[in-house]
């Protein structure tokens, strides 16, 4: 006899779901949207963690769990590519961060630079073992930077030493490495060669080296996109992290210079990982989700509130301009339409926190002119492509059951992305409010509460 529930009331707790994944789930009467299709009034059957069948009026005989999806939308789980497990003021977000990401619809995530890489690997392991709820984690090694870079990062002084360090981290299970602002062209070349010969990949937050140079050297992805396109910085010194950022306001988004850069990135199969939610967090007079007041540890809450006070007091004189956010989204959609691999992540910080910031990214894409299906492509399918997953990112028969059930018609009301009723990861169902339970004031605490 199947259990029948509404999509509003879910009776399996998170702990039960972790210990005993339901082997078959049937969701009835739903609208399904992914980047390729929109289907209405259909049912979806999950068996052993995979999407077995999508059709009308699927028989619920022998199904363990039946969910009424009337007036709901089912989309792929988010595959996000800039989801740190740290943020300014906290070197490791741990289980609290993982649960908040999953509650926000993120079923797979790339950490894209680690402050505590060993802890990230340990968290990845306990999630895979089913001991903690969280997304699948694609781990990143420690940041690499040039001799003038941040003290907390690995400063590149000797190519052989870097090669040994990369080998050690790959042996531990790291699959991506991130270079930071002061990395030079010769250093990046050595890192790419070392990483690629071990089957791993490289991404970068660039400044001293341009996107054009990085693409031609073979980098796999570039973080933040247009905002850090120092290819167009006036007064830039070759190999130095300098130059004016006036291009953020003045560069012709439709012009030949940017078109040529896009051609180079696309020809070299370089993904751009956009991070609009953290840009918005730095922009005066923009929406603020009050969730940060609930989940941030006290020292991070104080930090965020002080920042917001300074930001709003400064107004138009603030360092981050509204037009930079708008132009970033214009750039991103143009890159996507030209055939570029655009991915996305929140880069959490300030009052922009895991999970909630991922949902905000979705809405920012739509507000920036992306169609619903384009936004889902960026949030899900493109991330899967960039990270090398062929089994997720779409709602298709045979694909892994990584899904988000939204209360409402997402196609016509994009804001309903905030109303996630269920997150399904590998066929296991989670309620967001259960995942968030007990996390109040825990995000960024030095000692995690079990």
UniProtKB/TrEMBL annotation:
GO terms for molecular function: hydrolase activity, acting on carbon-nitrogen (but not peptide) bonds. Residues 1-19 form the signal peptide. Coiled coil: none annotated. Residues 73-227, 364-428 form the Amidohydrolase-related domain. It holds the Pfam family Amidohydro_1. It comes from the Bacteria. Keywords: Hydrolase, Signal. This is Amidohydrolase.
